[in-house]
From TrEMBL:
Residues 66-541 form the Amidohydrolase domain. PANTHER family: IMIDAZOLONEPROPIONASE, PROTEIN LONG AFTER FAR-RED 3. It comes from the Bacteria. This is Amidohydrolase.
Amino acid sequence: MTADLIVRAARIENFTGTAVPNARQPLAARTGSVLAVKDGRVLAVGGDEILGRYRGTGTDVREFPGATVTPGLTDAHAHPVWGSIEIGSGLDLGGLATPDAVCARIADHLGTLPPGAWVTGFDLDINVFGAAPGGEIFERRFPGVAVSLMTRDAHALVVSPTVVRQVGLTGQETFDDASRIVVGADGIPTGFIVELQAMGLVFDHYPDVPVTTAAGHVATQLHRLAATGLTGLHAMDFTDPSEAVYRQIERTGDLPLRVRCSPLVPADSGPDVWAAVAETQALAGRRWHVEGAKFMLDGTADNGSAWFDHPDALGQNRHPLWKDVEAYRAAVRYFTERGIPTATHAIGDRAVRFALDVIEEAGNPGRAPHRIEHIESIPDDLLGRFAALGVVAGLQPVHATRMTRPDQSDNWSRRIGPERVAHGWRTRDLLDHGAVVALGSDWPIGIGDPRIALADAQLRRPVDEPTAAPVQPGQRISAREAYAGMTTATATAAGAGHRLGRIAPGYAADLAVFARNPLDLTPEEQAVNPVLATFVDGSPLVHVTQETLPR
């Protein structure tokens, strides 16, 4: 048999560190230096004998002297459509730590906009405002300008009084979920808009982005992500215009990586909505498909909308986002009975506990496991339940290292208190209790470059801040465990451990070619380890130059 593609490097490396249910064969680590691909699948792995056995006149032979070929990395939690549109059309506020810095960035941006245009932005650090976020400062600095800035966790907006007036917000609005329009002591909206349904009132007034423009933004960002070693994403967003965007991109080419999409099931929705989400499971393109359903059982600790056993320092973080948690229970059962896996956003300990209870009652959906995402702080008694129930834990290393501070001066830490902070992002503990831990970025909320996330997971501090103290240093993991979290674990999370996440005969030829073996490098070296090429189904995307994503 003649191969379509042969890849030769210094070595081929698989990553152990998590169980792989239904794998075709036991997982070997270093398996050789040459691999052959036929019809998008790995045909054989070995040494130079592969060249003699499978090379034909039409075989594409790719040589990478000194390099290491690994399974392509998959980000277990990202938002590629709305994230790309935000980056393409909004103002990046990342790294700004004071109100003056935010206003200066807005002032610079205003000069590029026509009169009357909205200023929209993302990655706003909630700590900028202290204890009382609000938009009055924008009215003082930019009278009559509509300013709407999304906070870093993407669960709130800070808007100017002009936006409040244009949208007609009163503070008396009611929502199906726990969204709210925050008002001051005078009963007037402060400009702090919390959670998705309330935010939607503002989003309805955002300028329209044509599908062709949105598709250009998404294609650009996906190529940038692929340049960092990613061959797949688990997209936790699939709403308008997701399908149109993916189909538009595929009209002229292929996505540079695979995208597995899980639509959101809105809080307190009913069977009609659930049925519509279930119907989307048939949607697919060449490199994207819909599989699974996303739930948000609570919000975020920073906004006081997470669900903990005990209130935070402000008396908040004590309610679920679903006002009717029995509707959540019924919805998870509905999807499970139809073989559709669920992914539940659960940040507080009470939310995680309730989600585990519901999943235990609902059972296993079959083709892929249920997942719980974020899991920001949980007590000891919940650690073993993930493995016992076969629930995948989805964690984002950069949230732990870049959204909190070791001295606990950040908003998250001040709110939930030192005891719960000490139980934050328990990557090491979950692995030690046998859980499958799938690692992601929450991009664009977190940094999308997986090399940075995996380095942070090993250091428990920002890899680019060598003098920073670690956050919960006991939760550090090894390099092999980290890379397993974006290969074998993400394949398991997608119910695809038999065809993705490793380099072995019969598996999809999704590959990353690193200049050096990540396992031989320090975390600091891993973060800048050049990616020479990625392959999806054996199709190459060669990266001549390297860049580290700023987001």
